[in-house]
């Protein structure tokens, strides 16, 4: 589904990704772990199409199509979703209306009919309940005055509503207490699907106790230096990142 | 003569020509009105001319207006151009309605039947005829503001307008809506446009309350290139505990000049709340003078302006705290979506005796194109020592993180921009007292943003 080949990316003239390779097939959950500054967020942002990232070399294909040529909205239309590390506040923009605009923009782009208002309302309520997100927050402005945990749950709610093909969760676990983490993991697990791929970008192994990845990759200095299964995450948890960084340097 | 002198002379000639051409009746049977007009005419001859050297006109191309010959006669037949008023009504909006066509009350289009007891509402022209004694009272004779050129011009030549008076403790059950349909009605080819002047006189007695909606509309129905100069003076006086909700929607022709001068005087515990929405005009200026004359009065001035190519929208606020414990709030937001200009000049004066004043002024501006200009000038003058006053202004572009957030959710760039602009304006729109009007204004903003989509080319968008 997603193929990243020899990806080199610069941010403000500093090379952050240094020839990254990754293959993700439908139904798989990949965890990308790495120390601070290893390029985790850069990878998330490049995949979602954020401005300010200069691709020097390499390819990113989604179902054979060059993702890098597409605008952020076109990527969303193709099924890419990024749950942001720092969800943005949108003053004056109603959360419910925002989600409906988003769903319908994607449906329009796919030549599908707009979602019926009642059906939308039912879905959003049902999914908010699963994420234990207070219904009042649906009527508020997007993320304005939300707690850190509420913002993250609101991201997962959007993901549940948009049903993406490729979901990238950028440090969704950061700043969450254990209860919030469990709820979010539950929400993500409910979205696991043979047709859907999920990339979990995280610093800590903690999230992976609740969402079992099929693959774990370690990102160091902008490259994946080691890949494995869940056991690798546990090893990192015990030994930290330094041994891998040292091995990589050697 | 130097160029500056020539300009001054041109300006004096401009005013003189308007005075001469006007066919406003001399009102010789009403001595006070005759005197009012006469004083005003004399003031116009002797007042210093207006220009960019004066602080209040520094950022405004006032001279543009003196380059245009306006026809100040009212030489037209109201009935002939009577429009279909349904084209201009808000859906399901229940109001006492007055309609003015080029400054003259169109009785047939108005509907002020079944006014509750204690409410006097009507056209100034009719009122002067039917109840001149009352009109004398309502005209604030001590403050004719002949020190200001354009107000003096209105004093000298106003022909019609609105008066609204509420007796003690009367609460008006429905809003009063005044629709001003303006266009160039000059019959003479030698004039580039016409001059339209109205007077608004609002007085609420002790404990009375009302909602007033004024809509200034390009009434040509055909296009946006009608040239006219609309000059309105409003006098609003609120007695103790009186409350007025005032909403003004300005959407004049893009070739028109609009000037509104509002003089608000407030007594003890009175409350004035206004929403000022500005969309139209080549040059549209609103001036507020708010005078707290007794303690514990409240004044909220809110506004939203949307500025397109070749437009200048200008707000001048002057709130004077002269009594103790009054509260004033000014919150104005601008969206500059074309190569135009906005001016915001907000002054709050807190006099020595006005202890415990509470004043806050905010002006925010959103620039959607690179070549728009905003001149914003908050001024706090504080002479009392126990007060709470603050001010803040911002000028910015759309937030790129917000844009990315919306786009990453599948929303196209131009739609994302509109959503953010609507969100930005919501703070002001949500504060409008009437839901029907909130909707109307939100639609107007959407229309403006749709028409001028920087993503669709034409502008240098950010």
Structural features, described:
Helices cover 38% and strands 29% of the residues of chain A. Chain A contains 9 helices and 12 strands. In chain A, strands 6-9-10-3-11-12 form a 6-stranded mixed sheet, sandwiched between helices. Chain A has a 4-stranded antiparallel sheet with strand order 2-1-4-5. In chain A, strands 7-8 form a two-stranded antiparallel ribbon. Chain A is globular and about 60 Å long. Chain B has a domain at 3-294. In chain B, β2 (96-101) and β3 (104-105) form a beta hairpin.
What do we call the CATH homologous superfamily of chain A? P-loop containing nucleotide triphosphate hydrolases
Could you tell me the radius of gyration of chain A in angstroms? 18 Å
Overall form of chain B: globular
What is the straight-line distance between the termini of chain A?
Answer: 33 Å
What is the number of strand segments of chain A? 12
CATH class (first level) name of chain A: Alpha Beta
Gyration radius from CA atoms of chain B, angstroms: 22 Å
Which consecutive residue ranges of chain A, at least 5 long each, have pLDDT under 50? Answer: none
The strand order across the widest sheet of chain A is 6-9-10-3-11-12
Order of secondary-structure elements of chain B: HHHEEEEHHHEEEEEEEEEEEEEEEEHHH
The rough form of chain A would be described as: globular
Poorly predicted residue ranges of chain B: 456-462
* Total helical elements of chain B: 9
What is the architecture of chain A at the second tier of CATH?
A: 3-Layer(aba) Sandwich
| Total domain units of chain A | 1
Q: Main β-sheet of chain A: number of strands, strand sense, barrel status?
A: 6 strands, mixed
Largest sheet of chain B: 10 strands, mixed
Mean pLDDT of chain A: 93
């Amino acid at each position: 589904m997603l193929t990243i080949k020899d990806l080199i990316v610069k941010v403000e003239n500093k090379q952050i990704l240094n020839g990254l390779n990754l293959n993700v097939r439908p139904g798989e959950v990949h965890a990308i772990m790495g120390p601070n500054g290893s390029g985790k967020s850069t990878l998330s942002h490049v995949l979602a199409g954020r401005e300010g990232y200069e691709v020097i070399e390499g390819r990113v294909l989604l179902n054979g199509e060059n993702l890098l040529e597409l605008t952020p909205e076109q990527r969303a239309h193709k099924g890419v979703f990024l749950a942001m590390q720092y969800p943005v506040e949108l003053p004056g923009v109603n959360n419910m209306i925002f989600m409906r605009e988003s769903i319908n923009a994607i449906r329009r782009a796919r030549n599908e009919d707009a979602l019926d208002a009642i059906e939308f309302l039912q879905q959003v309520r049902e999914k908010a309940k699963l994420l234990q997100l207070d219904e009042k927050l649906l009527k508020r402005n997007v993320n304005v005055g939300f707690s850190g945990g509420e913002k993250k749950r609101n991201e997962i709610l959007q993901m549940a509503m948009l049903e993406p093909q490729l979901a990238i969760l950028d440090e969704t676990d950061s700043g969450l207490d254990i209860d919030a983490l469990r709820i979010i993991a539950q929400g993500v697990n409910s979205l696991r699907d043979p047709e859907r791929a999920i990339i979990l970008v995280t610093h800590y192994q903690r999230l992976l106790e609740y969402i079992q990845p099929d693959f774990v990759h370690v990102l160091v200095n902008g490259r994946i230096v080691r890949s494995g299964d869940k056991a690798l995450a546990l090893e990192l948890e015990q030994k930290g990142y330094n041994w891998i960084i040292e091995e990589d340097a050697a | 003569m130097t160029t500056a002198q020539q300009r001054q002379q041109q300006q004096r000639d401009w005013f003189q020509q308007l005075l001469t051409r006007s066919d406003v009746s001399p009102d010789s049977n009403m001595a006070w009105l005759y005197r009012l007009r006469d004083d005003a005419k004399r003031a116009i001859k002797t007042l210093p001319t207006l220009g960019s050297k004066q602080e209040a006109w520094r950022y405004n191309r006032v001279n543009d207006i003196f380059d245009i010959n306006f026809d100040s006669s009212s030489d037209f037949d109201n009935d002939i151009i009577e429009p279909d008023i349904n084209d201009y009504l808000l859906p399901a909006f229940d109001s006492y309605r007055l309609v003015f066509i080029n400054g003259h009350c169109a009785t047939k289009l108005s509907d002020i039947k079944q006014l509750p007891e204690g409410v006097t509402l009507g056209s100034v022209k009719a009122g002067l005829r039917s109840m001149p004694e009352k009109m004398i009272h309502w005209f604030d004779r001590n403050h004719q503001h002949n020190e200001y050129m354009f107000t003096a011009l209105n004093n000298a030549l106003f022909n019609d307008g609105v008066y609204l008076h509420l007796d003690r403790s009367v609460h008006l059950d429905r809003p009063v809506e005044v629709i001003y349909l303006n266009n160039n009605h000059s019959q003479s080819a030698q004039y580039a446009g016409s001059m339209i002047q109205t007077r608004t006189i609002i007085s609420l007695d002790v404990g009375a309350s009302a909602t007033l909606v004024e809509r200034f509309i390009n009434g040509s129905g055909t296009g946006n290139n009608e040239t006219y100069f609309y000059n309105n003076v409003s006098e609003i006086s609120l007695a103790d505990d009186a409350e007025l909700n005032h909403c003004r929607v300005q959407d004049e022709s893009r070739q028109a000049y609009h000037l509104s001068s509002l003089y608000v005087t407030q007594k003890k515990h009175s409350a004035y709340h206004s929403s000022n929405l500005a969309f139209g005009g080549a040059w549209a200026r609103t001036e507020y003078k708010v005078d707290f004359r007794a303690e514990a009065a409240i004044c909220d001035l809110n506004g939203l302006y949307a500025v397109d190519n070749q437009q200048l929208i200008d707000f001048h606020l002057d709130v004077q705290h002269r009594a103790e414990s009054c509260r004033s709030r000014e919150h104005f937001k601008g969206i500059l979506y074309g190569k135009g200009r906005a001016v915001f000049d907000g002054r709050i004066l807190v006099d020595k005796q006005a202890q415990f004043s509470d004043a806050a002024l905010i002006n925010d501006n959103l620039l959607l194109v690179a070549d728009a200009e905003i001149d914003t000038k908050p001024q706090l003058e504080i002479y009392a020592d126990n007060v709470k006053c603050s001010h803040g202004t911002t000028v910015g572009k759309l937030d790129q993180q917000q844009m990315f957030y919306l786009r990453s959710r599948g929303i196209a760039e131009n739609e994302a921009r509109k959503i953010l602009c609507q969100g930005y304006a919501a703070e002001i729109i949500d504060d409008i007292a009437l839901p029907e009007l909130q909707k109307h204004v939100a639609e107007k903003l959407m229309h403006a943003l749709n028409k001028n989509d920087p993503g669709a080319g034409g502008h240098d968008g950010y």
